[in-house]
Amino acid sequence: MVIALLGTGIYTTIILGFPQIKYLKHGLKVTRGDYDNPNEPGDLNHFQALTTALSATVGIGNIAGVATAIYYGGPGALFWMWITAFFGSALKFAECTLAVEYRDFDSKGMTAGGPMYTIEKGLGIKWRWLAIIFACFAVICSFATGNAIQSFTLSDQIYSEVSQVVGAEHWLTIKHQLTDWYSVSIQQIINGILIAGISGLVIIGGIKRIGNVTSYLAPFMAAIYFTAAMLIVFANITEIPSSFAKIFSMAFNPPAAVGGVAGGTLLVIMNTMLWGVKRGLYSNEAGQGSAAIAHSAAKTNFPVREGAVAMLGPYIDTIIICTLTGLVILCTGAWKHTEFYVSISASSIEEYNSAITLGSFRGTDLINGSLLTSFAFKNGLSWLFNYGDKIITLSVLLFATSTVISWSFYGDRATEYLFGEKAIYWYRLIYILFVFIGANAGIETVWAFGDAALGFMTFPNLIAIILLSNKLKDLSNEYFEKY
After folding, report:
1. pTM over 0.85
2. Nearest 5°: CA angle at 402, between 231 and 218?
């Protein structure tokens, strides 16, 4: 997966002549509305298409995903997230340009686009089997990556907040052991019902309602998170140089490690790289093909124009928002609560194993996921007020809800491609049910399921990008020569 994504990203970058640099200024102008034409075919303007795609990508990956990458892979994982984003922006340009070029319109005049249409119409009917594979895994991935993972993290965050108020033994929060490996509380069930209900109100309305909601929600949630993170960065400005030093040094020259990541420097670097790329991919979804479905709904006659808008996604999502999350975790010292820190600090494998088993190291609790980011924000904003962690609760609420809403459209389009328009209603009902299921699921199962489905839907999309690379060159050259 790492080789396929980075390899295709590098190949696309070279063959198109670094579009993520050349077309950056143009992409900003298009997003600003300089080229909007309401009479052109499509359902959303350029800004709405970008915010719909960003609402799906700016989510738990920016809060819990970055924390998880640092928890297991250390500060150096951030460097590999940047690499994924840089080459991923070329993939976004490619997949979204092709999605608009080969999109279709259904009987109601609504856009129907994405890698499944790109594969069938771009490569020919003999490749329809590959398009079907993509669409099948897009539906599965919508239930996991864009749905269950989001609702689980949101439910977990709400449960944590309620537990702080009423305690873990309250009738709302006490966990009932249903099997040897699964327990659930009344609070989590209530969370699932509420999240599913709110999401359902938007999802049933289709892409135009989704676009209207995300065009307001995405900028609002990004502004809150960005402002809070920047306050922490400025308050700890003297720690920023050393934080960047950790990121670069631990990406290529990590300290000696024991325990779970023992076995030599190369294995430690590979572990760091793997976590960075995995969470980087999950964060910006470059090469996965999902964002191409949202961008195919843009009002435009020029595919390259929307491709230039799409490539801004990884810059905003990973280069800016994920980096801010990482810097907050590093500059506040929250990263010392991670398994990676234990692995480079423990004096022996026995001490390492003991720390992992007990969940604490030399009197310091180990914290993972969104709770690690909450801890960092609470410490980082303690000079201003004592409720910095509540910003993460609000961000998780906004990020997760927006991702669930946007991802429903991806599965919606894949369902229509596979089964026709009549199946959309049933897909939406099942999708809302999975919101409830995710809110009550286990984190390891949900993340593993999501990563697997994400991988299986990525490969058909990458194959299409490679085989249609000459078409991409022709589209780009013609657009910038003529217009």
Report:
1. no
2. 50
